[in-house]
Here is the input.
Amino acid sequence: MSQVVLQLQNIHKKFPGVHALKGVNFTLRAGEIHALLGENGAGKSTLIKVMTGVYQRDDGDILLNNQAIFPNNTGDAQALGISTVYQEVNLLPNLTVAQNIYLGREPRRFGLINWTKVNQDAAQLLKGYDLDIDVTQPLSSYSIAVQQLIAIARGVDMSAKVLILDEPTASLDADEVQTLFRIMRDLKARGIGIVFVTHFLDQVYAVTDRITILRSAQLVGEFETATLSRAELIGHMLGKELAALGEHKPQAHATSGDALLSVQAISRQATLSPTDIAVSKGEVVGLAGLLGSGRTELCRLIFGVDKKHSGNVTFHGQPVNFSSPRDAIIAGMGLCPEDRKHDGILGQLSIRENIILARQVKQGWWKFISRKEQEEIANNFVKELSVATSDIEKPIEQLSGGNQQKVILARWLAANPSLLILDEPTRGIDIGAHAEIIRLIRKLCDQGLALIVASSELEELVAFSNKVVVLRDRQKVTELTGDEINPQRIMQAIAAH
Ligand SMILES: Nc1ncnc2c1ncn2[C@@H]1O[C@H](COP(=O)(O)OP(=O)(O)OP(=O)(O)O)[C@@H](O)[C@H]1O
Ligand SMILES: [Mg+2]
Here is the structure.
């Protein structure tokens, strides 16, 4: 076995009211890919932030190559050789790619930044990652996937011994994930130790050597990936068998058959070709397709976020023409967006305030929801969705990533919509909460709610959809019903030429 590069011993971290890490140990070897796993709120991101100096540990030791280290911020950690790439890329979108790569360490000549060299070096560096791009363009002109690779290239170039990736794949498509994995394996071969946080178990088995599992702020154990079965892994994460959560069985809901929403030939230039979709009361319509296939665009057009260029929409038997999401909310629709970080959470506001927001918009601000009722609603959903928090008055930004997503889902449920559009509802959500959310979706449909759910996870679509609309290249290619709703058939439709 290769040598230990980073060792954490007996790490404790407390936040007001939360003991987020209780004596956790973690060992990373040079040249390994090490998965850090656990349920939402288990303490993964906190452990990483302790390693990288974002938070200071309350107790315990961090040894890098057997030397105790005390990083006070990410800059310190980086200087020691610990680089981190978060799900949200932490670079500066308006600077060029090259400027981002050499930010703060630009090559100089006679005291002046040598821009020609910056650009040449950046291009050369990225070639090593198979990225043949124009490094003089702003970072923001590239996809999130490319931005993440750029962030990795920057981190590694600043002499990384340890590379930490916290849910880097949550917004990548299948090809982009493969590219990332190839690069991770290259870096591993160069002797870098990689910590990888993900909720996708397939990815754990595809790329990691060892696994450390946290549960409720404590270490469950360290395992060899090759010898830990999926069932054991899930058992360790949840502290119970997945079977106890209930099977994901496809099941036919009784639907009224009357269209609640009927959309004909809705389109928007350069975003979506004319598309039809109909949803009945109690029905779940799944939207399948690759990233960029038009799923999110369709959701946004229906909800009035973007303006449609053509098409007719009938809702509750009435023609409607929403010019803003507010119109759609008042009419009884909800949209839980894909990019919750930007379109969803209001970080400084409390969990309670985040939950009641859509309901308040629907009722109108002049009919203010009483504090007591707000508390009832919020506590109810916190319980129903098992949001891990001790207090609904905490700012939502203090919740773990997955728990923030549950709160946004609660926001839309609290507005009592008749049609709810969910764009990737379980992204970043752990496997236990995932099963709970699917169960909740089914229950809501039995109560008559209609749903449109866009998801990249085929098993998930199969588990709850009555009908699956498949999009490809910004248009609808087919609609599957009954026995046609199975992963193979959906995959074929997504991939067919
Ligand atoms: N800045 C903070 N202030 C207060 N509490 C916090 C803060 N950051 C994290 N916590 C709490 O610490 C606990 C662990 O959160 P952490 O973000 O480490 O979870 P995680 O394992 O990364 O979960 P996820 O899979 O949802 O990202 C949670 O209870 C969270 O609410
Ligand atoms: Mg996290």
User: Anything to note?
Assistant: The longest helix spans residues 174-189. Confidence is low (pLDDT under 50) at residues 244-250. The chain has two domains: 4-94+138-242, 259-495. Residues 62 and 68 are 6 Å apart (CA to CA).
